[in-house]
């Protein structure tokens, strides 16, 4: 057994009594109350999910296993010749909460390489899809197509409940190892006339992805940074929750992650990174060669709001300040592409949009989220087909949601099944001032 899996097994054994004790001795302790606004309003803020993999503070932003973004980047072993940690070391960290040594990270790399072969039928299915399929449909389909590889599904009838996590870990690791090649294949098939670049042995996941995309350095670091930043955002976001929900029925990792990707493909969630570029391109087209200024940005933002649409890349269900993932990418831009014209427009929007949204007075958070800043980096390195951007989010998001469903099975979380009520019941409780 690999060092990662051995450590994970030990961590699971150590953790299980904590969950069991809470369930057995403290099940009736109240930690939240639910009001009508939350029931109608998307379950906002209801404390109803458990994860130890990441936590999102509204003001501070995300912490992975207790570390914020700069701490995470600083703590993990870096890729050879790169400024960012390897995705492999981050996977080890997300699963176990421990910082791997270089040797342990190298072992994950070797393990991923051993698992990386994508079944040929996946490429056949992708090639057979309509040419105008959205890349997220292609990614989700590719993942679902591989369901027949699931070890969890194959062994389900023979496994004890305490052994479920092992098969889920195998499925999650196989999926994680294969996703970069599938994503790059979709890109080259769709936008590069099917001129596919084969994976190369010896490269870490980020570098191999850059290689298969056909984009030169420092895109290897862009890929590492991007996948890590998009990995996890605690458990209530749509992609994480959808993955967890489907996995709670003991559906395997393929079914579950495909569901998560389908949620990520919504414009209020991961597709917002595509929407941001779409908004900027429409704005520039509308200007017809006139220089963007804060004045004409402001006018365009108001036009978007007045037409009843959202400003993509702004607002958040939990965050109440600028997303630190936005800031991390902005720092990258300031270092690598400070004079890029698109970066300048993104910064102009950052100067103007929070004021416009505040003046409009609807959103609880007028600040930018991760999606407002991610496309500009991709664009700069030549990835201008922005309907592909959510696929990049999806590969990154796999790290978080797959690590989570391994732990879901390890801790034996049950099938998720909240209770629904009728509108008449809500009206009755509203009239009585509460549910007696
Ligand atoms: N532009 C215009 N209106 C907005 C925006 C925005 N960026 N953000 C929120 N609002 C509106 C929202 O539509 C709602 O309007 P109404 O009362 O008419 O339904 C009102 O403000 C209150 O919404 P909030 O409670 O502030 O936000 P909520 O938690 O419901 O939604 C988002 C969160 C992220 C869905 C929302 O801010 C949004 O639609 N943002 C734009 C899309 C986006 O960037 N999504 C990506 C989020 C990050 N990710 O990658 O998933
Ligand atoms: C995410 O990364 O999932 C988004 O920021 C959405 C969220 O956290 O609700």
Layout of SSEs?
Elements: H1 3-25, H2 36-40, E1 54-57, E2 61-64, H3 69-75, H4 87-96, H5 102-115, H6 120-128, H7 135-145, H8 151-155, H9 164-191, H10 205-213, H11 219-229, H12 238-248, H13 253-264, H14 272-287, H15 294-306, H16 324-336, H17 341-360, H18 371-380, H19 389-410, H20 423-432
Antiparallel strand pairs: 1-2
Bound molecules: nitromethyldethia coenzyme A and D-malate.
Nitromethyldethia coenzyme A binds at residues 268-270, 272, 305, 310-317, 362-365, 369-371.
Task: Summarize the structure in words.
With 436 residues, the protein is an all-alpha fold. It has 20 helices and two strands. The chain has a two-stranded antiparallel ribbon. A hairpin with a 3-residue loop joins strand 1 and strand 2. The protein is globular and about 65 Å long. The mean pLDDT is 98. The site of D-malate has 7 residues, from loops.
């Amino acid at each position: 057994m690999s060092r990662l899996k051995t450590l994970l097994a030990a961590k699971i054994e150590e953790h299980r009594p904590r969950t069991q004790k809470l369930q057995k001795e403290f099940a009736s302790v109240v930690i939240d109350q639910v009001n009508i606004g939350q029931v109608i309003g998307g379950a906002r803020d209801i404390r109803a999910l458990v994860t130890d993999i990441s936590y999102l503070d509204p003001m501070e932003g995300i912490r992975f296993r207790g570390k914020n973004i700069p701490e995470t980047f600083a703590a993990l072993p870096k890729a050879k010749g790169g400024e960012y940690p390897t995705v492999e070391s981050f996977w080890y960290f997300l699963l176990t909460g421990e910082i791997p040594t270089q040797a342990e990270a190298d072992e994950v790399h070797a393990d991923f390489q051993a698992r990386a072969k994508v079944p040929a039928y996946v490429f056949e299915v992708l090639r057979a899809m309509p040419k105008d399929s959205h890349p997220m449909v292609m990614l989700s389909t590719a993942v679902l197509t591989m369901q027949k590889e699931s070890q969890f599904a194959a062994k389900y009838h023979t496994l004890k409940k305490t052994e479920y996590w092992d098969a889920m870990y195998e499925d999650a690791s196989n999926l994680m190892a294969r996703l970069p090649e599938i994503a790059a294949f979709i890109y080259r098939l769709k936008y590069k006339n099917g001129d596919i670049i084969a994976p190369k042995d010896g490269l870490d996941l980020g570098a191999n992805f850059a290689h298969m995309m056909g984009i030169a350095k420092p895109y290897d670091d862009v890929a590492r940074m991007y996948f890590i930043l998009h990995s996890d955002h605690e458990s209530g976001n749509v992609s994480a929750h959808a993955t967890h929900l489907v996995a709670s029925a003991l559906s395997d990792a393929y079914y579950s992650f495909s569901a998560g990707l389908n949620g990520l493909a919504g414009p209020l969630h991961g597709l917002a990174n595509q929407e941001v570029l779409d908004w900027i391109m429409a704005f520039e087209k509308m200007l017809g060669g006139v220089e963007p200024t804060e004045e004409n940005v402001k006018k365009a933002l108001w036009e978007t709001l007045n037409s009843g649409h959202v400003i993509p890349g702004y607002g958040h269900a939990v965050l109440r300040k600028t997303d630190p993932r936005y800031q991390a990418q902005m720092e990258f831009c300031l270092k690598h592409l400070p004079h890029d014209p698109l970066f300048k427009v993104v910064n102009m929007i950052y100067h103007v949009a929070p004021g416009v949204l505040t003046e409009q007075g609807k959103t609880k958070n007028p600040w930018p989220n991760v999606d407002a800043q991610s496309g500009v980096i991709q664009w700069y390195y030549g990835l201008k087909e922005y309907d592909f951007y959510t696929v990049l989010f999806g590969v990154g998001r796999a790290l978080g949601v797959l690590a989570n469903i391994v732990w879901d099975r390890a801790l034996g979380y049950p099938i998720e099944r909240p209770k629904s009520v009728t509108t008449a019941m809500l009206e009755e409780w509203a009239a009585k001032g509460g549910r007696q």
